[in-house]
Amino acid sequence: MNYRLLKEILEQLEVYEKEKGESGPALDDFARWLLGHSAPEAVRDDPSQAPQKRWEAQMTAPEKDIGMYVVYLNRYARHYTKKALDGSPLTTMDDFSYLAKLMATESLTKTELIQVHKQEKTSGIEVIKRLLGAGLIEQFDDPQDRRSKRVRLTAKGRQTIYGVFEPMLAVSQLVAGNLTESEKRTLVDLLRKLNHFHEPLFLDHHDASLDALKEFVKKS
After folding, report:
1. Cβ(117)–Cβ(101) under 8 Å?
2. Cα 79 to chain center, whole Å?
3. Which of 82, 76, 105 is closest to 95 using CA atoms?
4. Tens of pLDDT along 3-59?
5. Which of 153, 139, 175, 176 is closest to 90 using CA atoms?
6. Bridge-partner residues for 138, per DSSP?
């Protein structure tokens, strides 16, 4: 064990506690403080090093970890889904979720179906085309608006959903991993809160710049 390094960390922790007046600092707060105080003095005082310092601070920010782990979870889920859909007419998680949504409703317009899945229009149209080509859904004129098309499940689509229901249930259980029931409920509450924040930005301010979208975070 590197006792010299451990001694230096403990000395820095003592300084941190004196500055902050805390006897039990959070690890992430201490890490950010340590990063700033362990940099060479010339780097800390040189304005030209500000971008580098901001980058280093961002690398320890919790927001970075949230984004990173959400991306990882999405990749894990898609990996498991590919196994679950093997041998079925479905090829992607989007294929399944589009059919599952139509299973729960009589029909939707193409735009409604795409929006409920928070997808770009071009990506959503590709999913719909794939499902139409496989005979899993069918389209028909919207009786309220002849310019619009509605889609609904076919008998084949319903049978397909039934056939992959159990494997997809296993995917959900795998993604939830080793969380306790209480942790699952807490995570659902947090994800629902994030969804309520992002949904109007995606649907109502889709073309806004990133700087404009960042203002919503400050106001929330």
Report:
1. yes
2. 15
3. 82
4. 566 666 677 777 777 776 655 556 667 666 666 655 544 444 555 555 666 656 565
5. 153
6. 152
Report pTM: 0.70
Residue 137 class from Cβ within 10 Å (0-12 exposed, 13-18 middle, 19+ buried)?
buried
Helix (H) or strand (E) holding 141: strand 137-142
Give alpha helix (H) positions in 3-61.
3-20, 27-38, 41-45, 50-58
C-beta of residue 150 within 8 angstroms of C-beta of residue 141: yes
Answer for the pair 131, 157: CB distance below 8 angstroms, yes or no.
yes
CA neighbor of 128 nearest in space, from 153, 160, 161, 103: 153
Percent composition of the chain: helix, strand, coil (DSSP 3-state, to 5): 70, 10, 20
